[in-house]
Every structure is written in structure tokens, then in C-alpha cells.
Amino acid sequence: xxxxxxxxxxxxxxxxxxxxxxxxxxxxxxxxxxxxxxxxxxxxxxxxxxxxxxxxxxxxxxxxxxxxxxxxxxxxxxxxxxxxxxxxxxxxxxxxxxxxxxxxxxxxxxxxxxxxxxxxxxxxxxxxxxxxxxxxxxxxxxxxxxxxxxxxxxxxxxxxxxxxxxxxxxxxxxxxxxx
Length: 179
Hints:
Layout: H1 2-12, H2 18-27, H3 38-50, E1 54-63, E2 66-73, H4 75-89, H5 98-103, H6 111-138, H7 148-178
Antiparallel strand pairs: 1-2
Helix pairs in contact: 1-4, 6-7
């Protein structure tokens, strides 16, 4: 998935350097789409260059006292982008929260500690909703174009609201049985 994100960002931002691309991924909260680290990002950037899917431009710019290389997508990179769009655009996956794994053994776990875990899920989900609300409040619809990233975030917010409701109901149910 990281190669798709890098290629897509280079289509949107030709001539960007690695740090700019990584900053965009962080600023846009792509971590909700795929887990990535600085190291995995730069590894994928290097792999894309070695495969000839992106190339350095002649434009090297100084950044923090050192020269940085700018990149652009190649024709074969555009072909790979299309392949990756089909690959990921046709996938549908189950919702997979790691919390579900812990719930498998909830009956064998101390109820008060379980309530703490559920509260942690509530807190994290509320924080995610707050971030999404912040993003949605500062973005405007693009004129004449569908802003897919905004639509994705609206959908993500809806999912988090459903999860939040479920976590709260689960917590109330457990609290009722421990009284």
C-alpha cells in the first residue's frame, strides 16, 4: 500500500522530495489507512526508484543545510500506479480491531480490568473522532471535483461513531453485571 501512496502523492505533487511526501502522509493521517514508519517510507521510496517507477529530477533543493533530491513518477510508474489502484480498489476486508482478539477471552479476565480496557477504547475512539472533526472543519469541498479524501474521512468518522456507541453499550452491559 505504501508504494501506491507514494506514487499517488507524486502524481499530485510532481517534484516533491521524500520529506515533503512523508510530511503529507502524516499531515493527512494516512496512518489510518496503512501502518508506516519513517524507515518503511524511505525503504519504499528507494525501492520505487530502483525499479524505475520514480526518478530523481535535476532539481536538487537545499533543505536544512543539505541538498535534497526531488522525484517525479515515470511512465512505468504510472502503469504501476494503475495496477495498484486496481489491486487495492477491488479489495474488501473484514473490520479487524486488535481489541476483538482481547474480547475473545473477556470472560476469563477481571471485569474491572476489562472495563478499563473498554474505557481505553472509548478514549482512543473519541480522540480519533475529534481529529476527524478537526480535519473536516478546516477542509472545503473542491470546486467541481469530488474530494475523495474528505469522503473517506467522513466514512471513517461514521465507523468510529458506530464503534464508540458499541464500546459504550458494552461497558454499560458489563457494569450492569458486576453490580
